[in-house]
Amino acid sequence: MMYWLSDFSGDIAVLNLFRYLTFRTGGAVITSMVIAFVFGPAIIRWLKSRQTNGQPIRNDGPESHVLTKQGTPTMGGMMMLLGIAVSTLIWADLSNGYVWAVLAVTLGFGVIGFVDDYLKVTRSHSSGLPGRVKLGAQTAIAIAVALWIVNLTTEVTPTGLALPFFKDLLVDLGWFYIPFAAFVMVGASNAVNLTDGLDGLAIVPVMISAGVFLIISYLIGNVVFADYLQVHFVRGTGELTVFCGAIIGAGLGFLWFNAPPAMVFMGDTGSLAMGGALGAVAVVTKHEIVLAITGGLFVLETVSVIVQVVSFKLTGRRVFRMAPLHHHFEQKGWAEPTIVIRFWIIACVLGIVGLSTLKLR
Question: Which residues are paired to 171 by β-bridges?
Answer without folding.
Answer: 161
